Amino acid sequence: MLGQDRLRNIAERVLGYAKADQTEVLVFSGQTDLTRFAMNTIHQNVTETNVSVRVRSILGKKTGVASGNDITDDGLARTVARAESAAAFQQDNPDFSSLPGPQEAKPVDAYVQATADCTPELRADGVGRILEQARASNLEAAGAFSTEESEVYVANSLGVRAYHQGTVANVRTVVMGETGSGACGQTSIDVGTLDPASVGAVAVDKALRSANPVDIEPGEYTVILEEEAVGDMITMLAFMGFGALAYQEKRSFMSGKLGEKITGENITIRDDGSNTSSLPMPIDFEGVPKQKLTLIENGVAKHVVYDSFAAGREEGAVSTGHALPSPNTMGPIPVNLFMETGNATKDEMLAATERGIWVTRFHYTNPLHPVKTAFTGMTRDGTFLIENGKITKPVKNLRFTESILGALGKADMIGSAADAVKSMYGSFATVTPAIRVRGFRFTGTTDF
Q1: Mean per-residue pLDDT for 256-281?
Q2: Model pTM score
Q3: 4-199 under CATH 3.65.10.10, yes or no
Q4: Is it the case that residue 440 has pLDDT exceeding 90?
């Protein structure tokens, strides 16, 4: 990484070249190291180091964006010129008011030196603990162990100057047998808290237990959803309608519902960019400090998140610090979500279930209707039949079509512990417990 001083220098040079009415610059720097494995063999170890600069130019109510990774004087000047040229050819956006002004953000210590210093040998040793268990059980493991250090500097012509650095470590595997599979993963800012041997043990155990699955009819079942499946649902809610732009355009499940009950009373979801049990980032990509917000409290819709553009469209609104990098058609999105835990263990959920289905994770989930929060997908890597409070046999994977809020409204048991589930959309994580849901709707079957 380049460090705060060098990133500041790049940003100031960009602003020095700018001629637009307002200018914003985002400077990203970082390194990602990845050890990938398949068929019980490490087959790739790669390192990617990059610096990128993104410039947003404002001419009146016109906006243009350009980016590049040439940080020479000529390269930065060209990036600024491209952004200003793009802005000149745009139509006015009557809803645009201004870039944000400076606000003081409280820094968060999200950088762990051990993660930044993690060597290929250390990652290979962790992967080896997974592969050893897979080979011993005549199974095949695939996956990756990655470590990352990154930093971002945000500056604009109105005086914003903000910086954040952080680290991410992630290990994940899918273990395959002839007729069954299992998966497990862990993520943290601190590589030292990951336990690859435990990840391998869970995945191998599920692959062995899911062998020779039986058919089961689709329909409504009580389900126990592990943390990864719940994290998938909560992350999708963020994109469906926790943002103010979706709320304003009435394409959000929150539209017209603030202050009303939308889930069961045992559901509370908040966004907290400063909590280090996730992958924190205390500023957004406009340099605005992130507010800690409760989005759903005891089942009641409470807040949506804002960036400067959405706040400018609504009288009395202010940015809550949830801007994504421009250009962005989705509007503000919360990316540090937490679902409050309950008081049940997964063993207690299992013992309380007369008949149901245990779901390890979802696969290929897709939104269907954001206002109804309808989504679809499949179960994967460990789907089991529950009978009389015990897991009795593996079942072939099922396709589901369900409302996320509807499922949360039918959740009658919430796990007492939560795991960080890394998002597929970037270096963010959602922290969620397992839940038990009554009447979860499965609409189709598979052959595996």
Answers
A1: 97
A2: 0.96
A3: no
A4: yes
120-136 helix and 196-209 helix, angle to the nearest 10 degrees? 30
Helix (H) / strand (E) containing 95: none
Separation CA 261–CA 435 (nearest Å): 19
Q: What amino acid occupies position 245?
A: L
3-state secondary structure (DSSP) of residue 321: coil
Q: How confident is the model at residue 163 (pLDDT cuts 50, 70, 90)?
A: very high
Sheet holding 161-176, edge to edge: 62-68, 41-59, 22-38, 140-156, 161-176, 181-188
Q: How far is 88 from 11, CA to CA, in rounded Å?
A: 22
Q: pLDDT digits over 393-420, tens only?
A: 999 999 999 999 999 999 999 999 999 9
Element (H, E) at 349: helix 346-351
Q: Whole-angstrom Cα distance, residue 351 to residue 19?
A: 67
Q: Is 152 helix (H, G, I), strand (E, B) or coil?
A: strand
* pLDDT tens digit sequence for 11-28: 999 999 999 999 999 999
CA–CA distance, 95 with 309 (Å, rounded to integer): 7
The amino acid sitting at 106 is K
Domain spans in the chain, listed from the N-terminal domain onward: 4-199, 213-448
CA 52, CA 49: separation in Å to the nearest integer? 10
3-state DSSP helix/strand/coil % of the chain, to nearest 5 = 25, 40, 35
Strands (E), 84-204: 140-156, 161-176, 181-188
What the block records as the tokens of 225 is 């959803």
Task: For residue 53, give the nearest of 186, 175, 126, 155 by alpha carbon.
Answer: 155
| Alpha-carbon gap, residue 402 to 439, rounded angstroms | 10
Question: For residue 101, what are its two tokens?
Answer: 């002004």
pLDDT tens digits, 99-158: 999 999 999 999 999 999 999 999 999 999 999 999 999 999 999 999 999 999 999 999
At a CB cut-off of 8 Å and minimum separation 6, what does 172 contact? 143, 144, 145, 183, 184, 185, 186, 199
* Distance in angstroms (rounded) separating the CA atoms of residues 427 and 447: 34
